[in-house]
């Protein structure tokens, strides 16, 4: 790494919260580009301001490295190559794959899925209520945890019954910045092997038009730019990005609503505002408080700091979404905030492909919950809630509620 800044650690998240830590406010003001030490011991340039984070995601001089290739190692210590996920694809490769995948997650394509997502949410709520003997339950176990996985499996064609095979590997990869590289690589290769075997099964079975089958059919079309390996990458990407992050954000979003009863009442009285509320929850909750590693492909200077080719750069959406230069009163939950140009899904060519599905799922989860359980509230003091802090994306491990 270059520069003479004092090496600092990534600001720690306060226990029992999702963040972002107050330290980001100081960094935005005093050190918007600072050399920092990551949980795995590597160093990187941390970007905390909204304008810099947004620009970094779209900057062609910054590329996301392969999980198997960063930190870089030479010679015999270099791991065997792996397929890139969508976030790691570059140039023409990324463009042709994105062209094939993006229509599957567009608003028009997802609209027919809305009734099915609603039916799944209603079924989970009905089961939770039926199994409760005293009008209380754990919302995470009964609703927040199962819904995103069912939606993901329903839309993409992932087998729900295989969840005990692939979910442990996805959890390892989500904590990659603080997990030994050997474990990260083992999980990555295991998911890649699982995806390849799943595609073999799909090719031999008759089925509906799930996303995996649609992409496979496209890859077999004469003259198609899509390859079978690209479909394998699609499966791995969905496993890494489509479940746990959505689950954890949903838990944090519902906790935010439950701890702002006035806002919750207004939303219940005016459900037409749920779409706007979802955008604010995406901004307010630090969905991407994880480490987003980018690597500079050439030298450049930012706020007087000399970033050199090969340096790692870490834009922090959790900090950017609380930047007062971009959002008025940014630490206040304002469910009517508009416009709301948050960067929860990143920005630029690598913005999250599944953003519309995440929005639809969260909006439906809130809508059904408020319709079926209008009197829902926390059943315990908020400071007694147990948190899942096993990955950088922290979330409530339990949400005891009553209705």
From TrEMBL:
The keyword Disulfide bond does not apply. Keywords: Heme, Iron, Metal-binding, Monooxygenase, Oxidoreductase. The keyword Membrane does not apply. It comes from the Bacteria. Pfam families: p450. Belongs to the cytochrome P450 family. This is Cytochrome P450 hydroxylase. It comes from Nocardia rhizosphaerihabitans.
């Amino acid at each position: 790494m270059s520069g003479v800044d004092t090496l600092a650690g990534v600001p720690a998240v306060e226990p029992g919260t999702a963040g972002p830590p107050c330290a980001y406010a100081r960094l935005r003001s005093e050190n918007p580009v600072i050399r920092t030490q990551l949980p795995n011991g590597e160093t990187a340039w941390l970007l905390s301001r909204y304008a810099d984070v947004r620009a970094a995601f779209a900057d062609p001089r910054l590329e996301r490295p392969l999980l198997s290739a960063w930190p870089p190692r030479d010679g015999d210590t270099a791991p065997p190559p792996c397929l890139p996920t969508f976030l790691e694809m570059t140039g023409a490769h990324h463009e042709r794959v994105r062209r094939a995948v993006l229509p599957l997650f567009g608003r028009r394509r997802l609209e027919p899925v809305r009734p099915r997502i609603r039916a799944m949410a209603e079924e989970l709520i009905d089961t939770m209520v039926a199994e409760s003997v005293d009008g209380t339950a754990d919302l995470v176990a009964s609703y927040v945890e199962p819904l995103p996985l069912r939606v993901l499996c329903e839309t993409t064609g992932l087998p729900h019954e295989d969840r005990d095979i692939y979910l442990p590997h996805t959890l390892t990869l989500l904590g990659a910045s603080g997990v030994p590289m050997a474990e990260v690589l083992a999980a990555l290769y295991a998911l890649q092997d699982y995806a390849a075997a799943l595609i073999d099964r799909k090719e031999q079975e008759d089925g509906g038009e799930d996303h995996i089958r649609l992409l496979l059919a496209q890859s077999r079309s004469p003259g198609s730019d899509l390859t079978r390996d690209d479909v394998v990458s699609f499966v791995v990407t969905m496993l890494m990005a489509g479940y746990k992050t959505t689950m954890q954000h949903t838990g944090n979003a519902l906790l935010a609503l439950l701890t702002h009863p006035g806002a919750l009442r207004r939303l219940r009285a005016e459900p037409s505002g749920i779409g706007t509320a979802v955008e604010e929850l995406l901004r307010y909750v630090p969905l991407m408080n994880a480490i987003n590693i980018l690597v500079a492909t050439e030298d450049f200077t930012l706020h007087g700091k000399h970033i050199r080719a090969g340096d790692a750069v870490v834009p922090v959406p959790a900090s950017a979404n609380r930047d007062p230069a971009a959002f008025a009163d940014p630490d206040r939950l304002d469910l009517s905030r508009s416009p709301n140009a948050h960067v929860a899904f990143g920005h630029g060519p690598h913005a999250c492909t599944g953003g519309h599905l995440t929005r639809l799922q969260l909006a439906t989860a809130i809508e059904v919950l408020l319709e079926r359980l209008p009197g829902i509230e926390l059943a315990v003091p908020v400071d007694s809630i147990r948190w899942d802090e096993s990955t950088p994306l922290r979330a409530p491990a339990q949400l005891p509620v009553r209705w």
